[in-house]
Amino acid sequence: MGKEADIAVLEQLNGSFGYIDCGFARMDAKVKLVARMTVRAGRIVYDPSGLSMVEWEKARPQYFNTPGLGNSAPAQADDFPR
Asked: What is the pTM of this model?
């Protein structure tokens, strides 16, 4: 109870894939796992395809404002911790 979760979100792809080992031998397979997102201690630390992000058309209005010069914070589409 009270522990932080670490989560890996994987996608299974089916098809023809080749893998190599440290001796440079190849093994063929019909399945490949692809990392889509990683959550560490409740924060998203890897999300290359934006699974956790709001679509740009649905971003809050502040997202579309150009930040001012100086120390202005960058515009963000949501408040989700990343």
From this structure: 0.65
* Kind plus residue range of the DSSP H or E element containing 15: strand 6-20
**Residues 20, 25, 30, 34: what is their CA dihedral angle, to the nearest 10 degrees?**
-10
Whole-Å CA distances, 19 to 10, 16, 22: 18, 10, 10
Per the listing, tokens 């979100």 go with: 9
Query: What does the pLDDT look like over 49-73, one tens digit per residue?
Result: 999 898 989 888 888 877 776 666 7
Rounded Cα distance, 21 and 37, in Å = 25
